[in-house]
Write a structure and sequence with these properties.
This protein is α/β, with parallel strands linked by helices. Helix content is 28%, strand content 19%. Helix 2 links the parallel strand 2 and strand 3.
């Protein structure tokens, strides 16, 4: 079930700073010396409003709100439907879980990258039910990696 876009999502989209892609197009993303925020979500198309993952529904609006205070573009990447991700189904074969790839262990996962190099990552921190704790973790990571 789709939810309404959060205000931060609307602002990022109107500024041309938010894009949504499916997992198949992730490898084709251009490398840039400017930092980029990547948020991996539970769906096929990278929608930030429609996910089978309750942690994504809780954390993604918080991530987007925090990113608003930066100049970073955001790419939301869909890891697939639930059965494409969960280990009790076909998830063990998901390329985003591969140790040769990004070795993601959960969604949502947030990465900050520059020139294809990961500068920082949040995973289980985004699964916290308390959105104030999620915001503190995101703000801390952004401050740390963007100040260098």
């Amino acid at each position: 079930m789709a939810s309404e876009p959060c205000e931060a999502e609307k602002q990022l989209q109107s500024a041309g700073r938010l894009s949504h892609i499916d997992g198949k197009h992730y490898e084709a993303l251009p490398k840039s010396p400017e930092p980029r925020v990547e948020i991996f979500v539970g769906n096929k198309d990278g929608s930030t409003c429609n996910s089978w993952c309750p942690d994504c529904a809780n954390a993604v609006p918080v991530v987007l709100q925090s990113v608003l205070s930066t100049a970073c573009p955001v790419v939301a990447v869909g890891v697939g439907e639930r059965d494409d991700w969960k280990l009790d189904a076909r998830g063990a074969e998901n390329p985003f879980r591969s140790s040769e790839g990004l070795a993601l262990t959960g969604v949502p996962t947030m990465r900050v990258v520059s020139d294809g190099v990961e500068l920082g990552r949040l995973g289980s921190e985004l699964e916290e039910a308390d959105t104030a704790k999620v915001k503190a973790a995101v703000d801390s990571l952004l401050a740390k990696v963007l100040s260098t």
